[in-house]
Hints:
The protein is of the alpha/beta class. It has helices at 3-12, 16-23, 28-40, 56-64, 78-85, 119-122, 126-139, 157-179, 184-191, 198-207, and strands at 46-50, 70-75, 94-97, 110-116, 140-151, 211-218, 223-229.
Amino acid sequence: MSKGVLKVFSEVAHLYELVNHILTFGLDIPWRKKAARVAASGGGSLWLEVCSGTGEMAVNLKELATPQTRIILSDFSMPMISRASKKVELREASISLADSQQLPFPDNIFDLIVISFATRNITPTQEKLTEFFREFHRILKPGGRFVNLETSQPSSTPIRIAFRLYTKQVVKLVGKIISGSKTGYVYLAHTIPRFFKADVLSDILYESGFLKVKYITMTFGAVAIHRAVK
């Protein structure tokens, strides 16, 4: 990821969870729980959360993992991953400071890779996103699963307009006031309405080499969970 994106997430790390809860009216909590259930349902002994941030999704995964399951958290922001490492629930998890474009793991080792609310920040282009997904595909075992939780685009025109207006006006302003970051939530608000529709993201996953791509949408299509298999 770019140095600009790194700066954004480093600036907002201290209040990232609080701001997310406020801006989504707390809905990000059940969204993550649902995605974690989808992810954990296939089992496996080695799970990776990419762009793990402060570890909220990892906590949900930990609750659903067996005692034999090892969970690794990976993120490129030291302030973010530092906050995750301090959570009691993640004291047994492994931590990796790494860029998701060049993950420091060998081929074919993970049963599961999860990413939540970070995909839209990886890259704005379909071609580059395909490259990132191929990196995730590389380190998954054959038959391993990739689960992506991300904002999406509501299919209803009135809801989509309202969603984009809220993102443009409220997310940018409230995020800035609470976090104290002048640029962080301006950037994040910019990425939300420009991310791919759920069906288009499915096509990108297929192009990246994944199979059996399925997705479900939540909250009138504002959020989607994609599940794909290597």
